[in-house]
Specification:
It is a single chain. The protein is α+β, with helices and mostly antiparallel strands. The protein has two domains: 132 residues, Phosphorylase Kinase, domain 1 (2-Layer Sandwich); 113 residues, Transferase(Phosphotransferase) domain 1 (Transferase(Phosphotransferase), domain 1). Helix content is 44%, strand content 16%. It has nine helices and seven strands. The strands form two sheets. The chain has a five-stranded antiparallel β-sheet, with helices on both faces. A two-stranded antiparallel sheet has the order 6-7. Helix 4 packs across helix 5, helix 6 packs antiparallel against helix 7 and helix 7 runs antiparallel to helix 8. It starts with a helix and ends with a helix.
Length: 261
């Protein structure tokens, strides 16, 4: 897929949000990845409640990296056999369905977690191939990925606590990020925000959810150890999973009083 063709697809996406009165114009791209490009956009305050936003425009089907996502899709039942077969064989129809699942899963995870008060961007609107959400940052500088940040030891300790509370809160709401790393954690004004949730797993259905949780915790602990915060990821993940299994996770504001991480 040539860049001009992809630009045309994105222009169609932008036109939709402009036509709906949600954005007025695109300022600049702020992040390009395998699956999508995120753009800084000027939003309509009267319809969005914001002056700036982040528009995540997923790439066309031909450009997207349709890796085997069966681990993340485990437990999701699709009624129509032809759709299940198309997904398994990765036909054109299968890619179209998978693309829709990918966008919808992120949208639903953002809606759930934002409503629960967890540190994710607020989802504003969506199409079949894009999600408009609140911006973390401002027009001059957007929030950097955690991988490029250099926190002090005190900041790292606080940051680690924020992320563990976020992981715990997500699990309480039956969401495991599944691909958490310093690449999809933003850091702005000493607060962490978790992004990129198309692969989020439901631990009630997904047989791989525990291993995904262990990987998420492990990556956060590995990053934190670079800045002097030493923890035991296996024990943390095990304790979280056991608490979830026995319905012992409670809302953070209560749990923090008796059992801070």
């Amino acid at each position: 897929m040539h860049d001009d063709e992809n630009d045309q697809i994105h222009t169609t996406t932008f036109d939709h949000f402009v036509g709906e009165g949600l954005i007025t114009h695109v300022i600049r791209p702020i992040k390009a990845g395998k699956e999508a490009t995120v753009h800084l956009v000027r939003t309509n305050p009267s319809t969005t409640g914001e002056r700036l936003g982040a528009l995540k425009a997923f790439h066309s089907l031909e450009r997207r990296d349709f890796r085997d996502e069966s681990v993340y899709r485990d437990g999701e039942w699709i009624r129509e056999r032809r759709i299940r077969v198309a997904l398994q064989k990765r036909t054109k129809l299968g890619r179209e369905v998978q693309g829709g699942i990918w966008v919808n899963r992120e949208w639903e995870a953002l809606r759930l977690l934002w409503a629960a008060g967890l540190p994710v961007p607020r989802p504003i609107a969506r199409t079949s191939d894009a999600i408009l959400m609140t911006l973390v940052g401002d027009e001059v500088a957007v929030a950097p990925q955690l991988r490029s940040c250099r926190p002090t030891p005190a900041e790292a300790e606080d940051l680690f606590g924020q992320l563990m509370r976020a992981i715990k809160g997500m699990l309480f709401h039956n969401v495991v990020h599944g691909d958490l790393s310093p690449y999809n954690i933003l850091w702005w004004e000493r607060r962490a925000t978790i992004i990129d949730l198309p692969q989020a797993a439901d631990p009630r259905k997904n047989r791989h959810a525990r291993s995904l949780l262990e990987r998420d915790v492990g990556r956060v602990c590995e990053y934190a150890s670079r800045w002097g915060v030493e923890r035991h990821p296996e024990r943390i993940a095990s304790d979280l999973w056991t608490a979830w299994e026995f319905a012992d996770l409670v809302p953070e504001e209560l749990r923090a009083l008796v059992d801070p991480i």
